[in-house]
Amino acid sequence: MSMPFVPSRRRVALQALAAGAALAATSARAQSDPFDKPRPACVLTREQTEGPYFVDERLDRSDIRGDAGGRNARPGAPLVLALRLSSIVGASCAPLADARVDVWHCDATGLYSDEDDLRTKGSQFLRGYQASDASGRVRFATIYPGAYRGRAVHIHFKVRVPRQNPREEFTSQLYFDDALTDRVHGSSPYIGGRRTRNDEDGLFRAGGRALILDVRDAGDGYVAAYDVGLRLG
Question: CATH number of the domain at 9-230, out of 3.40.50.10140, 2.60.130.10, 3.30.300.130, 3.40.50.1370?
Fold first, then answer.
């Protein structure tokens, strides 16, 4: 992966402040239910590869924009990610509570945190987990991911249910509509230019169309929702 342009510290700081204010407004709008249907469709979610950049940071937090303690928040279009987990048994499903859901993704310039080969070792931005509530929901405050060579724009997630089987885990990836990404990536701090589109990504072609997020414009940012259906045991 080619190294991206790195903006000045002052510019990054100003962008981070602006992103923080915008995300607060987006989060306020996102308090309403982001799901179209009151009940999940009980559809099994496709599993996809973990990829090379998962780090088990064990950061229990809903705001994952920066390092631990909120330092060094990454600039970008504010995004609230809402997931609703269900355990599927036969043809019916029930909310999956107390599941640990990790999410991780790259920043606006295509970098993942805490990686030696990306020169980000020691940072913790855009990583974290939440435990699902009684209705099976988790919510993360983050930014719209950037892009890097060879992959469509995506967010990784991993689900673990320690109370059922500490060793069992489910991993997959979530994608965005290309037209929306074109708009988001058309402004700073996104690098823009040629990127890998969904149908050019081999992983997306292997079931990614069923993993596209439902994204809504929240004024100063976006709210993305997805129903995760799992068959455990």
Answer: 2.60.130.10
